[in-house]
Design brief:
This protein has helices at about 1-15, 25-35, 70-75, 95-115, 135-150, 170-180, 200-210, 230-240, 250-265, and strands at about 15-20, 40-45, 60-65, 80-85, 120-125, 155-160, 160-165, 185, 195, 195-200, 220, 230, 245-250. The protein is of the alpha/beta class. Strand 5, helix 5 and strand 6 form a beta-alpha-beta unit. The termini are far apart.
């Protein structure tokens, strides 16, 4: 009984810092952590816009950019665990992966080490590799390396595509279907297999790992319970929103280049 009381007091005293707390995964994670009795502080970057914080959930807020070392040190005061979810990949080809995903991660983990933080969690991607032709996968691999070399007790979850309300995946497909007339281009006709991972399952894993010491200094690769082709996912979205488009096969290189061309001629 005494040990249980000590554990409960430790949970109550623990403060967790979540970056990316206004994002799709971050909001779900904060809700899970607070529901499990943890105190949460979220780090948000300075902005003239009001942050879209989780509603109805008691959290602290620290305001600092990743290049503000003094602000990061202040955000780390009293922090026991960091969940690093912030990233800019949803901004497309205009995303500054070097500044945020690479240099930002390095600055954050160095501040965590300096502050004596016990655990550092981050969400990466299946396929993260420094040699990847995809900038996001390359950036995630470099960020992982900074974390592993820092000496902190880390847990890295490399996930498949995460989906759920407000995601950038199914929502993005729906926006494409609404915006493009008649046809939808898919790499190799949508034959690529993916393992969509429900966001609630992901944040459950992240919360569960906090209580398991065996997850320290580990990298896990996780995905959903079934493989689906990209074409199947698109067809499911079409059915859900009541839109039909003809799926046309295209070379992956063309599809990687197309957003760059569109953003060059159609700046927004």
């Amino acid at each position: 009984m005494q040990e249980l009381c000590q554990l409960e007091r430790a949970i109550i005293a623990a403060m967790i810092l979540v970056t990316g707390g206004t994002g799709f995964i971050g909001k779900a994670l904060i809700r899970h952590l607070v529901d499990n009795g943890y105190k949460v502080r979220t780090l948000i970057r300075p902005s003239q816009e009001s942050p879209r914080l989780p509603k109805g959930i008691p959290i602290e807020v620290a305001v600092a950019s990743f290049n503000d070392l003094r602000g990061l040190r202040a955000a780390m005061v009293g922090i026991d665990t960091v969940y690093h979810l912030a990233g800019v990949e949803r901004r497309g080809v205009r995303a500054d992966l070097l500044e945020t995903d690479i240099q930002g991660t390095r600055a954050l983990v160095n501040s965590a080490v300096e502050a004596g933080v016990d655990r550092f969690f981050t969400v990466s991607h299946l396929g993260a590799d420094r040699a990847s032709a995809y900038p996001v996968f390359k950036a995630k691999a470099i960020a992982e390396e900074h974390i592993r070399r820092s000496g902190i007790d880390y847990t890295i979850l490399r996930t498949a595509i995460v989906f759920g309300p407000g995601d950038g995946f199914t929502t993005g497909i729906a926006q494409l279907l609404y915006g493009l007339p008649f046809i939808l281009l898919l790499p190799r006709g949508g034959e690529t297999l993916i393992q969509p991972f429900w966001v609630e399952d992901l944040v459950t894993c992240l919360t569960w790992a906090l209580d398991e010491d065996d997850t320290r200094k580990q990298v896990y690769e996780i995905g959903g319970p079934e493989f689906l082709s990209l074409r199947e996912v698109v067809e499911n979205v079409m059915q859900a929103i009541g839109v039909r488009r003809v799926i046309v096969s295209a070379h992956p290189y063309f599809l990687r280049t197309l957003p760059v061309i569109l953003e060059y001629f159609l700046p927004g």
